[in-house]
Amino acid sequence: MADGYLEKHQQDYEARKEAYLRKKKHLPKLTRKPQRPDDEAL
Fold first, then answer.
1. Which letter does DSSP use for residue 1 in this model?
2. Interatomic CA distance for residues 2 and 25, integer angstroms
3. Integer Cα distance of 40 and 18 in angstroms
């Protein structure tokens, strides 16, 4: 019983991991530029 349980959870984990990596690959990378104050005296 324990072997089937562990195998099932390992397969579920691998499926979730693969879906996550596939989705992550297609997401645009966010680039942030530092904000400069409007007034240089501040």
1. -
2. 35
3. 48
